[in-house]
Amino acid sequence: MALTWNQLEQVAAELDGTCQELHTLLAKLGIVADPEAVEDQLLSVNMERCRGCGWWMDSCELVGDDIDSVTGYCDQCRPAAERACMGFGGDVDEDWD
Ligand SMILES: [Zn+2]
What we know:
- With 97 residues, the protein is mainly α.
- It has one domain (5-86).
- The protein has four helices and two strands.
- It has helices at residues 5-15, 22-29, 35-43, 78-86, and strands at residues 47-49, 56-58.
- A hairpin with a 6-residue loop joins strand 1 (47-49) and strand 2 (56-58).
- The chain starts with a helix and ends in an 11-residue tail after the last helix.
- The model has no long low-confidence stretch (mean pLDDT 88).
- It binds zinc ion.
- Zinc ion is lined by residues 50, 52-53, 55, 73-74, 76-77.
C-alpha cells in the first residue's frame, strides 16, 4: 500500500537528519506499509539514506561534485567509498597529471 502524500511528507520530515530505521518510524506513526515501497516513494521527495552511515538526507547531498564520483554516500562517507570502489587502499584524492 502506497503512502498518501501527507504521510509521505510526514515520514520524510521525521527521517531528515536522523538514522532511524524506516520500519520503526512507520510503526511509531501507525502507518501500515511495506518499508521497501516507502523507501522508493521517499526517492520522489528526494529523501535518501546514505549507504555508508545510514543517515537520511536530501538526495543531492549523496552526490559528489564530480560526475564520476560514487553516489549514495554523504560527504563524510564518500571518500572511503571512492577508495573502495577504485580498489586502492592508498591516497587517491589527488590526480596530478
Ligand atoms: Zn554517510
